[in-house]
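FAQ: What does a multi-protein file look like?

Like this. Sequence, then tokens, then the next protein.
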Amino acid sequence: MERAMGVSGSQRVERWMTDLGLGVAACLLLATASAVHPGAATSPPSIVLPEEIRLGLATDLERVEVACCDGPSWLVDDAGRQYEVIGSFEVIAAPGKASPGVHRLQVAALRDRVQAERLAGRLAGLLDQEADSVLDAATGLYRVRVGRFGDREAAEEARGRLHVEGFDDVWITIEGQVLEEPGFEIEGVGRVAGRRLRLESADGVVDILGRRYRGALEVFLSDRAGLNVVNAAPLEDYLRGVVPVELGPDLYPEIEAIKAQAVAARTYAVKRLGEFEGEGYDLCATPLCQVYGGLDVEHPVSDQAIVSTRGEILLRGGIPQEALFTASCGGGTELVDHVFPLLAGGGPTGTACVEGGVVTLAGGAEGSPARHLLKSLGVRRVREGRVEERLSRARSGGGLEVVGGNLGGLDGGWLDLREQGRRRLAPLASGTELLLTEVRAGAPPEDLGVPTRNLAAAPGDRLRVYLARGRVVLIVHEAPKRRDQVAAEPWSVWRSHDSVRVAAERRFPGLGLRSLRVLERGVSGRVVRIDLIGEQGAVELQGLAIRWLLDVPEHLVELTAETGDGAV
């Protein structure tokens, strides 16, 4: 794997970074590759990074309410003309001369791109009509539509034909077809011709859809005569709204892990640049691409990591690598093409996660944490008002040691802590002498937490460890802010035959699901291919599509079927 340096604009920097240096940080890339070793006979690549990247925030709106900005701001049209704007205003699509709107049939809204494209192909064959799948940037779903009918009667007839084929949930929508004189109607300004409006402010910050974003706001008129809302942001500023959401510094405060995430996120953006060009933007702002929260989610630690790695991306064979990552590795990473079939052919293998799994601790001690510490030091009687004083004296004298760090794991009877690249192994006291407590994330150091008999902690969780006479007698666990992360504990879910059948029908109308079977597991044990067996034949599912169909948190599952009369 090459780690190359790029610079925005026309300047080209040719520099090899021979050490990937990602390690087993909290950013767990789904793919790995061989390093470029010093002395290898290679030619350095020349990479030009984009100055700006466009993020789709919402699509196909009829009108956009803009409440911008704190200072002076102005609109710029396609021809470069500027219009000063003050306060709030409204933008409405004004397509002008256009062919009459056409009636289309919307058949589904699917999360998986492969399924959406496959369904569109099937619909095109059934009706001998144009069919397509278009991403809704706000929801992360692909809308599957078919046909371009001149009137509602023709659309109704086609809907009836689909109903016979088993497509029950079909509705009629209207789209513009060809925009001959595209434009916008702007409150306080009037009609402005063009397909794209750009709003810029003096302070470089814009407000839209309840969030603040760095850079400019753009409104793009789509071929469907709808308004797409876009944030055009400098690449490095874009990362400031991605990295802290994808890898929260409060959850994983290790700077090297966050630097790895910054490189991965930058590489992903460069690799996928222009993916939705026809819709007026490069990337979406949802988990389908990279979650992007704008200015309000920025964090100083993430900012530091982004600055430290400015311009750095991952290369494979001289081109940007598919730098995919996951919030949790589940004990082992997987082949990229097993999870994302569209990326087949990358070749990197999965690997075990050194820091995978959940650490379970049990403590037998009870009572007040402060009193427990004194007892562990051999101090039996202390007046209530002098407890803190005695603990402070014990810390100053070296009898009580306090160590903070991130959980690395358990090694026999030793607790593995990591802090700023250093490792500390601390011996655990016996169960009856060990007290476990939990506090909220960010609690002050004097908060010793609430006692608990059992503790399940994930690698990377923040701990405060108290050692008396060289042994760990108190572990204070900071409950992490996991946002949308899957809980680390083992889980089980039950899906009825009817619920799975309904989910399958939404994706494969007319299939008539009867059963399913696992066809293949990947190197990590994850389910990577299943067969849906129906009344009309069988359909194979791969990758994330399996997870979305079954609505489970992970692919690393055991599927147990309870059957009756041939049902799942």
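And here is the next protein:
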Amino acid sequence: MKKKGTNLVRGRFLYWKSCQVQIVKTNDTVSGLFLVSWLKLTAVRTYSKQLFIALKHLKDCSILHCDIKPDNILVNGSKNLLKLCDFGSALPAGINDITPILVSRFYRAPEIILGLPYDHSLDMWSVGCCLYELYTGKILFPGGTNNGMLWLHMQLKGPFPKKMLRKGAFTTQHFDQDLNFHATDENLMKKKAVNKLCMNVKPSGVGPKISSLPGEDQKMLSRFKDLLEKMFVLDPQERLTVSQALSHPFITGK
């Protein structure tokens, strides 16, 4: 899967936990260890562009990565080159089996959880989660279950389009016949699930979750927030595409 200039590799390993990035040396091209509490937007922009280039080549090859997360992103010793690795979950684009557990949970797009057909948009969602985490040092959707993930998605972006819910193979696991969401909490004392009807969701949007760091260019920060908002559109058909991402003002600086 290795191809020069594509920001794609195979057979490397990166461990990235919260504010710690540890690069484990598996050959002479990847080495080092560094700690960060946050990265400046200029660095995030550089890494963002490289991830989008990787997504473009995956799309050109009709491949879905299906497990983009910090663990599967490599940075070289000079910290100026990023590559995507671990294609163990990769699938050919097209008609694939519907499963609610594809992609690591925190980076799992809503269409996977709802049981909808999926395409390259699922990888775009995952990259958005990684970029948010790269800048803030925090996981955006730390849901303990798929049900919890959907609730976090709605708290950020509002109710799901009804057309999505009507087509989802697993919609009834989370929504009633009127398409109202039921949050499920595990009651450890009673050892059973407790359902709670959740209505009138007021989305926060991405912007309020991202604080301005000292010395950051506010125009660039605003563009970064706009990029993430478009990457987290709930409807995969309306989500930012790879070509749109590469031409976004945050990436181009124009």
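Q: Is there any per-entry metadata?
A: Some entries carry free-text notes. For the entry above: The beta strands are 14-17, 20-23, 33-35, 63-64, 73-75, 82-84, 91-92, 181-187, 192-198.
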